Amino acid sequence: MAQTCNATCSSACTDPTATSCRSAAPATTDAGDVPRGPIALPSHPYFLVPGRAAAPLLYSDTPISFWGGINSHTGQVIDVTHPLRGKRLEGSVLAIPRGRGSCSGSLVLLELVIKGVAPAALLLEEPDQILALGAIVAEAIFGLRVPVAVLGERFATLPRTGDVEIDDNRLVIKSGGGGSSPRRIVIPLGQPTDGVKLSPADEAMLAGSHGEGVAQAMAINKAIAALYGAESFIDITQVHLDGVFYTGPAALLFVQHFEKIGARVAVPTTLNAVSVDLRHWRALGIDTTLGEEGTKLADAYISMGGDAASMTCAPYLLPSAPGVGEQVAWGESNAVLFCNSILGARTQKYPDLLDLCIALTGRAPLAGAHIEANRAPTLALRVTPAVRDVDDQLLWPLVGYHLGKSAGTRVPIVYGLDGRSPRTSDLKAFAAAFGTTSSSPMFHIEGVTPEAPVGRFPPPSDTREITVDDLRDAWRTLNTGADGPTPISVVALGNPHFALDEFEQLAELVKGRKGTARVTITAGRAIVEQAKDAGYLAPLDDFGVEIVYDMCWCMAPHAGESRMVTAEDKFLVTSSGKYAHYGPGILGRPVLLANLAACVDAAVSGTIDVRPPAWLGGAEVEVAQ
Fold first, then answer.
1. Which residues contact 426 (CB under 8 A, 6 or more apart)?
2. Which residue did the predictor score with more confidence, 468 or 192?
3. Do the strands 163-166 and 170-177 form a parallel or antiparallel pair, or are they unpaired?
4. Of the candidates 372, 328, 313, the residue with the CA atom closest to the CA atom of residue 235
5. Name one Pfam family in it (predicted).
6. Residue of 43, 65, 92, 102 with catalytic role
7. Chain centroid, CA 105 distance in Å
8. Cα distance between residue 344 and residue 349, in whole Å
């Protein structure tokens, strides 16, 4: 779709994919001030979703995951690591570089719009199809509009405060006053383009030959394909639906809309972890509204053909996992990263809502990680010898977390770990932690992941080191709110869902011991059955481990709203870098990070010494408060 525009194109250029409308922007930073290096930014601002708005500016130079970072009921920022923590988005024009992390940002934005607590508009530095999709669906299905604009290089000229007005073709920001000189910035905004070519079969779907539901899904599919810069669609072999958990009325209204008009999936479709353990949510003390609405949501997806036996945030652990080169459409950030990076299959990081549209049509935009050239690394990080030789499970989530901050939207490669033999659970932890801080759909680890055999990719020009200091910083970020010996009442395992090798490790660690803290694992039913057949569950039962099915720790209610985390539980410990990042905002409690052996020790003693492991500097390191 990219074309070369002429040298006289105006600042309101309507082709944001034109090759001369992009240039190398200065180095930018994400949370933690990790430099991301030069990236290609549009030089001509344009709408992703046109519209009008007027409201005060709410600015941050740090990306945020709308899911896990923003309360979907109130619009308040709950990510404890984010500079906007505690701010409410309602009544503001939110300016951020882009989203990051979860594929569910689209669903959360839709929820905010339906509830009337969304920002009046979004101003982005880089295109973000996940957030744009939430706005597209809000208008297409519910008739509600939130404009989304990409400013590219002009994002750097934004003031930190001011009043914003957006009309059909420009953005005006007024700032200053009260002791500083008034300032008025005018930025022309181009319109989104559509160069997507439809096959005869696509045209037929769009025209309604397969029913109203498929026609509406294809229209949404086509709208987002244009934003991806896709020229056409491809057939896909399977879909993993992410947004099957209850974030509020919008999640249910969206799926019921398609269910009521008779839509059904066109390809095999697995389901993400849902909101509650469908069989035992009452015993867990889950709120009746959440339990009933979450069950309705799951039932609606199943009624349209979703696999009722799947319900996992780790579909790569299922027998249906795709092979190298297979074209699929997966949602759920850790699943997308594992799919592309570890399995070698091909998918975009598909947003919630779009994943259902693709499942209903069997067609996905030919863009991004579906294309071979887009899977090559453009950033390299080489671990130092001191990092390479670390023998600790924490190595994997910490390297993944730091790598994600460094990568941003780019595809990175890690050098120096080719002598390692990581377990499935190690790679799962790496991908999940990477996904919390990055917007990229994949990564490579030379000598470990299938598309990066040793020597295939020479180091890109942007090559850096990963040092022990970098990982110490990551550890400090993920261990907030405690220092020294700390009482632990809950051990949270299985985010993403527990793998079979983790069940095996845990069974060994707990043999002959008794827990004092509650240990709760969230896991998919298929893997639990495998663990049972292998004899791993008996030692866990003796220790007092509880297994929760269908849902994931990321869906656990706020502390005090269920038996999973009560009002009396003050500190949790987890082996998941992802949950150490998101958990504090979700639960309202500190969630501390430790390896699996240390988690078991904490469960036995009821305490954990919140100090980094010796290889990170031990007790000399001060923990963030």
1. 393, 396
2. 468
3. antiparallel
4. 328
5. AcnX_swivel_put
6. 102
7. 8
8. 14
- Residue 496 CA, distance from chain mean position: 12
614 burial type by CB count under 10 A (0-12 exposed, 13-18 middle, 19+ buried): exposed
Tokens of 335: 């699943």
184's CB contacts (< 8 A; 6+ apart) are 172, 173, 174
Compute CA distances 12 → 186, 191, 613, whole Å. 12, 8, 54
Rg (CA), the chain: 23
Domain with CATH 3.50.30.10 in the chain: 19-188
Q: Give the containing element (helix H, strand E) for 139.
A: helix 129-142
Please check whether the domain covering 19-188 is classified as CATH 3.30.420.40. Answer: no
User: In sequence order, what DSSP letters do the residues of 198-233 get, joined into one string?
Assistant: PPHHHHHHHHTTT-HHHHHHHHHHHHHHHHHT-SSE
Q: Which residues contact 201 (CB under 8 A, 6 or more apart)?
A: none
Q: What percent of the chain has pLDDT over 90?
A: 85
Q: How far apart are CA 149 and CA 158, in angstroms?
A: 13
Write down the architecture of domain 479-620 according to CATH.
Answer: 2-Layer Sandwich (3.30)
What would you measure as the largest C-alpha separation in the chain, in angstroms? 76
406 counts as catalytic: no
- Over range 59-65, report the average pLDDT: 96
Report residue 125 CA to chain centroid gap. 18
Please give the single-letter amino acid code of residue 585.
Answer: G
322-356 pLDDT, tens digit per residue, is 999 999 999 999 999 999 999 999 999 999 999 99
Query: Phi, psi (5° rounding) for residue 523?
Result: -155, 155
Domain 200-371: which CATH number of 2.30.30, 3.10.620, 3.30.499, 3.40.50: 3.30.499
Q: CB count, 10 Å around CB of 351?
A: 29
